[in-house]
Every structure is written in C-alpha cells, then in structure tokens.
Amino acid sequence: MNINIASFVTPPFRDSATTTVNTTVRLYTAVTTTQNNVLPDDWRGRYIEIGCEGGTVDYVLSVDSAQIIDRTVAATSAGASSSTLGGRLTAGEKVPVVVPDPAGGGQVYLARQADVSTAVLRITVVSP
Questions:
Q1: What is the pTM of this model?
Q2: Which long-range contacts (CB under 8 A, 24 or more apart) does 17-25 make?
Q3: How far is Cα 20 from Cα 73, in angstroms, rounded to an integer?
Q4: Among 25, 50, 99, 114, which one is least packed by beta carbons within 10 Å?
Q5: Which residues pair with 111 in a beta bridge?
C-alpha cells in the first residue's frame, strides 16, 4: 500500500455524535526519561502517522512494557545496534508507520524519550 494515495488515507475522524467517543488522534507526552504506554488493540496492522511537536523524540514500538530508550547509543563504522535504540523525530517531522500485529496477540507499546520535558507525539490513525 502506498501511504500517499488519498484513497487509502483517512483524516482525523470521529464516527459518533456521542461525546464519549474520541477522534482517531492521540497526544502522548515525551519527557527526558523513557515512558511506555500500550497502543489501542484496533491499531494493529493499521497505518499511523507519528508527528513530533517540540524537541527531538526517540521512539520504538515494542511488545515489552518495560522497553527502555537510550539516546546515547553511539554510531560506529560497522553500524551500531542496540535493544534500546529507536527511531528519531525532530520537531515538525512526521512519519507514517504500520503498527505491528505481534504473534500470539500480545500488546504493542509506544516507548519514547525526548531531549526536553515538553515534547509531544501526535499520533493519528490514517488507514481505515
């Protein structure tokens, strides 16, 4: 699927007039220590857009509820890798990703850590 094809991309949406039903957008704080929160089960296998508002945020989606982010992993000529190394978004940047559907039906957690205590990740479900 090409995320840039409009027929596959949905805008923020709310499918009810009931005030207890939320839109398809969530805001997650990102501070200078690792935070982990479970993503909604119905997001598995769907495209989401992760946008960074303020600061620089490292993130990873994980089945580990205690996932740690380490912003100090240093690059090497052979390519550094670590169980704590995540993707990085800077303020104003957005990235589309597919939420994994883990084997065995486990939960998917959003782990993140920022360089400032006021960063926010805006996550929007963009696929039907």
A1: 0.85
A2: 24/124, 24/125, 25/122, 25/123, 25/124, 25/125
A3: 42
A4: 25
A5: 36, 60
* pLDDT tens-place string over residues 59-112: 999 999 999 999 999 999 999 999 999 999 999 999 999 999 998 889 999 999
Q: Domain 24-125 falls in which CATH fold?
A: Jelly Rolls (2.60.120)
Q: How many CB atoms lie within 10 A of CB 14?
A: 12
pLDDT digits (tens, 9 = 90+) for 29-62: 999 999 999 999 989 999 999 999 999 999 999 9
68, exposed or middle or buried, with CB in 10 Å at 0-12, 13-18, 19+? middle
Domain boundaries, the chain: 24-125
- How many Cα neighbours within 13 Å face the side chain of 31? 6
The token duo for 20 is: 């207890």
- Cα(55)–Cα(64) distance, integer angstroms: 25
Residue 109 · residue 103 · CB < 8 Å: no
Q: Where are the alpha helices (DSSP H) in the chain?
A: none
